[in-house]
Amino acid sequence: MLLREVEYARPATVEEAVSLLGSYEGARALAGGQTLVNVMKARAAAPDVLVDLADLEDLRTIGFSADGLLEIGAMVTYTQLVGSSEVEVARPILAEVAATIADVQVRNRGTVGGNVCVADPTNHLPPLLLALDATFTIRGSDAERTVSADEFFVGVYMTAVGEGELLTKVSVPPSSGAGDGFAGLTIGKHGTYVANAAATVSQEGVRIALGCVDAVPVRASSMEERLAGGDFSDDAVQGAAEGLGASLDPPSDAHGSGDFRRHLAEVAAARAVLQAASRRKAA
Amino acid sequence: MTTVTEQPARTLEKGYVGRSIPRKEDKRLVQGLGTFFDDVRRHGMGYVHFVRSPYAHAKIVSIDVSRALELDGVYGTITGDEVAISTDPFFEMSVEPGGNIKDYALAVGRVRHMGEPVAAVCAATRELARDAAELVEVSYDPLPVLVEAEESLKDEVVLHDDAGSNVVWSGVFEWGDVDQALAEADHVIRIERLHFNRFSSTPLECAGALVEYDRGTGEWTLHCNHQMPGVGAIWMAPSLRVGIDKLRFVTQDIGGAFGNKICLHPQYVVLCLLARKLGRPVQWTEWRTDQHTANAHGNERTFLDVEVAVKADGEMTGFKVRALDDCGAFPRYEPLGCIIWAQVTPGMYGWRNIRVDFTQVCTNKSPVSPNRGYSRMQHLWLTERIVDIVAAELGLDPVEVRKKNYVKAEQMPYETPNGCVYDSGDYAAALDLVLDLIDHGSIEERRQEAASRGKLLGFGIGSTLDSGTNNFGQSTLLNPDLQFSGNNEAASVKLDIFGEVVVTLGTVPQGQGHETTAAQVVADILGCSPDQVNVRRGHDTWFNSHAGFSGTYASQFAFTGLGAVKGAAELLREEMVQLAAAVLQAPVEAIELSDGMARIKDGPEEAALPFMALGAIVNANNAFLPPDFNPTLNHRYVCRPYFGMVDTEKKTGQLTLTYATQIHAAVVEVDPDTGEVEIVDYAAVDDCGVRINPQIVEGQVHGATAHAIGAALSEEFVYDEEGTLLTSNFYDYHVPHAMDMPPLKTGAMESPSPVAPLGAKGMGEGGGGGIHCICAAIQDALATVGKPIVATSCNPPHRVWAMLRDPESSRAGVAVVSK
Amino acid sequence: MAAPAASHGVSVEVNGEQVELEVPARRLLVHFLRDDLGLTGTHVGCDTGNCGACTVHLNGEPVKSCMLLAVQADGARIATVEGLAADGELTPLQRSFNEHHALQCGYCTPGMLMSATALLERIPRPSEEEVRLALQGNICRCTGYVNIVEAVVAAGGAA
User: Fold this and answer.
1) How far apart are CA A143 and CA C106, in angstroms?
2) Of C5, C47, C138, the CB nearest to A42
3) pLDDT at residue B440, rounded to an integer
4) Positions of chain A with pLDDT under 70
5) Most A CBs within 10 Å, among C22, C30, C51, C67, to test the A interface
């Protein structure tokens, strides 16, 4: 409940932030703090330096790139996502899911960047962004690079953001008629997920991503292939989900065994796909 | 939302008792001006952090505090070795060998549960104390870990060498002739195993204290949130080797307790020792993780080899069971839980032939404490599970089985097989009220409608008794050498020089609105308004308004707490009337107290004295009073409920005095794919006799319901094989939030208690009705998919899914043998 | 605060008054309010940011002060429960809590009031569902939320 000693800095620009992160070995970026501060209270992590991103206005914007990608700054809060007309128009599933994260207080502080950089396997956004084929822009001291979702999520609490680097934005393709779905089982209403799945149905086909079952969000590729034919009836989708669980090796804990999660993954995947299919609009 | 249906047994007289007046406590609490123990500061105080064991079971090889002491700002430390020298082990209630357990304020030589305090550090700030704790080096030799009670029973690994066995207590309770009842039964239902899961009410405010030591007088003052200081002092004083008056407990506002703040004496003794050793006030705040890991769980109980005797017409004539209770690493308040359940031996039912073979063992888990519903809840869950399983197996309607077997209103007061007396109640009428509130007639229709949406709908009833006002003599049924019997509570009421009425209570309110209800009672007796009655906040040893058993627990405030207030107020009233009679020169019978005045009934307006006048006379202007008349206007009263003695041979007696009824009903929808249970409708009827403040009573029903819903669907203290608690914070130990609560309908009845001073029964605990009805509803929902048996009290999705996936396994332990 | 330091001077407006104090970087906002400023109305109920007993307003928005460092509040406006009743005059919401028996032990109450006050500023006449959503981050172990929700709806006048 009480943190170890730490040094704190609040830079005014992204360049300063990146420089600070690169200059101190034990430096961590502080975004909303809804996870990091708890981790530090438990003393499970004790960074030497906290680089507070609060003043970096450049990271708080939501807008569109020249190619029409929805660009969400890393410091955009869940509350901002929920209230954004850009998100509403371009990819409303983001707002819909963000609205179910924890509670109002957490949503007022928690950020998109924090959610993905924490890379907790039970977080909401990683499987969703993988299904949506989002890309992640990372700024280093001398360069900026953009990586895909598969490349971004590397392991439990581990992402492609290296030392001295900062995630600056997440870019999401606009729906363009695609239907999106998200389903799973939580511990209580708006609680932590035990198993979840995100799905997108578009003219390009189906993308299904599972959370909670592995170190990183995983694509349910076999299930996607089985649905390539475009039949999204109840039977077809349930049938396509069969066997998905057997291909997974999820963890066991107080909320369920590996077997239970295997089963839930199938249920969540089917429900997410059915929801996505029902929302798809003709091109 | 909520509807209240009232069926009062008497008409409301003029007065405040019986009215839902808004609470006096609220004014300070809504402004954030309450004083909880962590709000109290003292100059020069040190903050304490406990060094806790990372092992569930281990020998302590060495403790080195030197690095901690080197840290700037650290005031000092204390370890188990020091504690073993300067204190005596705490008083144990059990017989041998369990009674030989040595329980000290810190672990001595060995740790027996994860999180057990091993040493304590005191420093200038909270953060420094935390830092210093990390510098204390403790080396351990791990020992094998026991997390299953059935394993512990084998005594292959023994937790307490002084006892030589893990059995804290065991005994057989037998009344009537259950073997004959089983032989004569038309049906015998056997249930191999039922398990009541480990959980607790986890109050939002954690435990803690700020302790000051006065070197001149050798007295400690504890600004704390101990909810039963009378008993706390009985444990602590002998351990500290001091007289009981050396401990002053001061409580102010307390953020909930629910039984979790009864066994705080080990930590408090550490604070007392540190305060004395370091010569400064010391403060300890328990953190949430510590509360879950190492403070107080509710009793975990396994019921084995249940056999139930049932006649062809559905009459249940008896049952027997082997109960195995898991009290964690140290008994402390146990083994009282081994008898407390006997307050409700037959539950709500009329069966007369009962055998309970009860054993309690230690394991390497957190010690238990009397959690809300203490021990009765577990037993009532058993009886309700029995009723629903019997009904399901014999194809009977659980409503009809209950009505047939409930103790009838005409039988009240009803003596149970073990000599307890159910004072009043009409269980069938309460059940009818619940069925009405939940629109029982529409259940089958709702079942179809839910099925069309792919959901399994189920309906369940949970009938429960909240037994209140304990007879501590029941402890002699466990250990005949214990010198405890009866019960008591005290209160003082005085009239001050300026006419202020001041009340001090022996109880320790933690949200039950004692200041308000006490004021209502006093106002009616003295003929003034509750606004004119100042009830001092909290409990203070120096109020001298407490007795040996003082505290707020065991659903007894309405009886003993208010009984003491009533007694003191009546003594005061009598004196006020006599004094007014003397001053107004009228006979005593002609005096009445009303509107804050003492006046001659129907007399002239001038023949009246304000309270202030009476107070002023006695305190400052008393020369004219006759020598033989010496009013004090300051009265302390001890309410001593009368029980009679218990029979230790037959294990019978009046173990408690009042029995409030709560009948709950739930309608649930189960998602057959995920095992998720949603409560779509819920009703609860409470009958606690006269309701001093109906709104406060209803609030307690809401709160007890929420606790039960949490316990039924998500709250469980889950351990792995190494004795690590996996649900040590609110992420994993999920309690109901605002969106988790179903629409709640409540109803009330009033069957006044013939034995309680105000006809009001205690009712705060509730008896776990919500757990019982949700288990029943889940079982009903799954009846069409293999008829699994709900055999655990907590059923989160993974357990429901296990029943859905393999109903046969869950049925394996149930058998019906019919003639 | 451009350079990392283990303690910083912070300037915060708390309940309308400016406060300037040097604080360790590691100090949580809730402890700053309680221990440094003596505003003990804001409470600590858990270790993991779930219970909401520590809820305050940061620049007008409800946040959990146990998941903020005091240094993060530099330059910000904080409102705590002590700032609700001006000169001891209870707000309609506070009075509604009293009328509807929306508190028992009172420990969660400051957090509930701060969350509900923020809600009523956003949605003056909230429905029951909107109230439950707004209070989802505030745990109560005494009341079962029934009367709390009733009190907030009533204060909004939508009852």
Assistant:
1) 54
2) C47
3) 98
4) 282-283
5) C67
With a cut of 80, say whether residue C158 has pLDDT above it: no
Q: What SS3 state is found at B117?
A: strand
C28/chain B closest Cα distance in angstroms: 10
What is the pLDDT at residue B766? 84
CB pair distance less than 8 Å for A254 and B737: no
Q: Which of C35, C82, C141 shows the shortest C-beta gap to B32?
A: C82
Q: How far is C88 from chain A (nearest CA, A)?
A: 27
Mean pLDDT (whole number) for B129-135:
98
Q: Are residues B204 and C39, on separate chains, in Cβ contact within 8 Å?
A: no
Under DSSP, the state recorded for B278 is H
DSSP assignment string, chain A:
--PPP-EEE--SSHHHHHHHHHH-TTEEEESS-TTHHHHHHTTS---SEEEE-TT-GGGG-EEE-TT--EEEETT-BHHHHHH-HHHHHH-THHHHHHTTSS-HHHHHH-BHHHHHHH--TT-SHHHHHHHTT-EEEEE-SS-EEEEEHHHHEEETTEES--TT-EEEEEEE---TT-EEEEEEEESSTT--EEEEEEEEEETTEEEEEEESSSSS-EE-HHHHHHTTT---SHHHHHHHHTTTGGG-----BTTB-HHHHHHHHHHHHHHHHHHHHHH----
Q: CB of A31 within 8 A of CB of A108?
A: no
Query: What pLDDT is recorded for position C50?
Result: 98
* Contact: B738, C42; criterion CB under 8 Å: no
Which residues are C20's β-sheet partners? C11
State the pLDDT at residue A283.
Answer: 46
Is the pLDDT at B765 greater than 90? The verdict is no
Asked if A8 reaches chain C (Cβ–Cβ under 8 Å), the answer is: yes
Supply the pLDDT for residue B549: 87
What pLDDT band is residue B61 in, cutting at 50, 70 and 90? Answer: very high
Give which of B134, B670, B674, B722 to mutate to test A binding, by max A Cβ within 10 Å: B674
Contact B4, B748 (CB under 8 A): yes
Note whether C98 contacts B201, CB cutoff 8 Å: no
CA B708 from centroid of its chain's CA atoms: 13
Using CB atoms, which residue from C47, C133, C146 is nearest to B287? C47
pLDDT bracket for residue B645 (50, 70, 90):
confident
Q: Which pLDDT score is estimated for B476? A: 94
Q: Are B228 and B257 in contact (CB under 8 A)?
A: no
Distance set, CA A65 to CA A62, A130, B360, B575 (Å): 10, 19, 68, 87
Indicate if the pLDDT at residue B12 is higher than 70: no
Is C6 near chain A, with CB under 8 Å? yes
* B735: chain C residues, CB-CB within 8 Å: 139, 141
Q: What percent of chain B has pLDDT over 90?
A: 92
Residues of chain C found within 8 Å of residue A47, distances taken between Cβ atoms: none
Give per-residue burial for B182-209: e unless 16+ CB within 10 Å, then b. Answer: beebbbbbebebbbbbbbbbbbbbbbbb
Whether residue A41 lies within 8 A of chain C, CB to CB, comes out as yes
Residue range B124-138: mean pLDDT, rounded: 97
Distance from the Cα of C146 to chain A's closest Cα (Å) equals 17
Looking at the complex, does the CB of residue B736 fall below 8 Å from at least one CB of chain C? Answer: yes
Cα distance between the two ends of chain B: 48
B780 contact partners, CB below 8 Å, separation of at least 6:
B388, B458, B459, B460
CA distance C111 to C80: 9
pLDDT of residue B2: 31
Q: Is C136 part of the contact surface with chain A (CB cutoff 8 Å)?
A: yes
Q: How many CB atoms lie within 10 A of CB B279?
A: 12
CA distance between the termini of chain C: 48
